[in-house]
Amino acid sequence: MNVSALVQISVSKPKVVDWDGHLVSTGIFKTPVEGAVKVRSLNLDGDEQADLTVHGGRDKAVYAYPVEHYEFWKTELSGRELEFGSFGENLTVSGIDETSICIGDKLKIGTAHFVVTQPRMPCFKLGIRLGDPGMVRRFYKSGKWGVYLAVLEEGEIEAGDHIEREGEDGDRVRLADVVECFLNPTVDPDLLQKVLNSHLAQQMKSQLVYQTAKRRS
Questions:
Q1: Nearest Cα to Cα of residue 119 among 61, 204, 30, 27
Q2: CATH number of the domain encompassing residue 11
Q3: Tally of domains within the chain
């Protein structure tokens, strides 16, 4: 059985960059942090989200991305060297991914407690970070979206900490199930309904309803 662990912590403050002739504020350029980092209710110390309409807030306070996905991307991006944090994640983690964790799963890392809320929908700033406008679509189609976490209890975390599973809700909707509803035009209606009915998936309900309506039109 694989041990789930925190591999790296990365943070950044927003900065303004020139993208396609426009000035854009973004916090996606994460850099690694050594030692213990305080987890706050809305982010990590040293971290800040630039656009709170799509990132941040209580339900998207911390973004985690599986280290295992990096091997896929190194092949997909023609062997490009990708340092941890390249996808804008705060936490690069091992042993958990979209197929193994569910919305509502409770996790303990260090002395902080989290709950899984939803997968991360990519935005155009991922293209800025990787210097490739097509990266957003490629990331979306891959289904390797990573996971947003809400902070249940503040504490401290440090690279090397184990990730402990502390509980779950009753819906058992995997992040992969949510991704399936977005990517598969012939998704099982029962699965779609299960995702729509799940407690914490209500955050993404408008997006899922839009996807459903688009398929029927």
A1: 204
A2: 2.40.33.20
A3: 1
